[in-house]
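Just curious: can you write a single protein's sequence together with how it folds?
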Amino acid sequence: MVATDSRPLRMTAFFGLLGEHFVAGRLAEAARAWSFPCPVEIDGQLVVMRSAEVFEAYLAERREVALAAGMTALTPRVSAIEMPRKGRFRVWLRWVTRYGESVQEEDHGTVYFMAFTPDGRLTIEMMDIVQLPTAQTAAAAQSA
């Protein structure tokens, strides 16, 4: 019998726990997954989260907006995982948010630049939030 690689399950569990921390307001626990300073690229603009406290404040603002909209759960949908090189790799995912009975998938994707720490723990070193093409932009690209 060949052993299977559990990396996709580990990534889903890792990000799933981050989603649970976010929804429950355990932002300090969520922030422990990141290494600081942490560059975050959003729509071509680079923001550097200099400390866990700054990042927690950012998460608190996003959480407040999501809760006001009725968020009850946040789960990851992992699209791809890069093969690690020298302990570093990227994970592409989209977050799926539950608002009561409705479910909404983000209209953007996030690339997480990951690394293994010397003790084997996963850490996020950088994030790139990428706007995904709409049906119209995809159709325009195909006709060009």
About this structure: Residues 1-6 have pLDDT under 50 and may be disordered. The chain has four helices and seven strands. The beta strands are 38-42, 45-49, 71-81, 88-99, 102-105, 108-116, 122-131.
